Amino acid sequence: MRHAKHALFIIVPFILLTACSEDDPVAPQEDHAEAIGLLLYRGDTLHASILRGETTDTLYAVVDQTGEDFDVRFYDEDEDVFEAHDDEVTFSWEIADPALADVVQESGKEGKFEFRLRGKQAGSTTIEFFILHEGHADFRSGPMPLVVR
Description:
The chain is mainly beta and 149 residues long. The chain is 12% helix and 41% strand. It has one helix at 2-19, and strands at 37-42, 45-51, 59-61, 70-75, 81-82, 90-95, 101-104, 114-119, 123-133, 136-140, 144-148. The strands form 2 sheets. Strands 1, 2, 4, 5, 7 and 8 form a 6-stranded antiparallel β-sheet that branches. Strands 3, 6, 9, 10 and 11 form a 5-stranded mixed β-sheet that branches. A hairpin with a 5-residue loop joins β4 (70-75) and β5 (81-82). The longest helix has 18 residues, at 2-19. The protein starts with a helix and ends with a strand.
């Protein structure tokens, strides 16, 4: 009988540890890529990027004009490019001086991974981009220079 009690101390922890595997249908599954950088495309042409919060690129806007569309993609941990699934997450941004510029998205496409810049007044500021998931930022690009002419 004493051996049976010792066996329980070995078997029960083993069962608990192996039950918490990735095959557990009740445990939430994380299958989305983790972003470490952001790329801005116009069509098939890379226009600007920021990786691990560092960039040598500057974005430009013109006063009283709305620029061309940017399509947003991301770098994963291996620096491979991927597109975010906007049915799971949303796109957001913050302009350090919102008196200089704003971001425009078409009606019905709010939170999607495409946007345009509109200049309000000449000057220099920064813009930071986010992937939002369930109300919090899963990714922050770091500030990117934005010049309004």
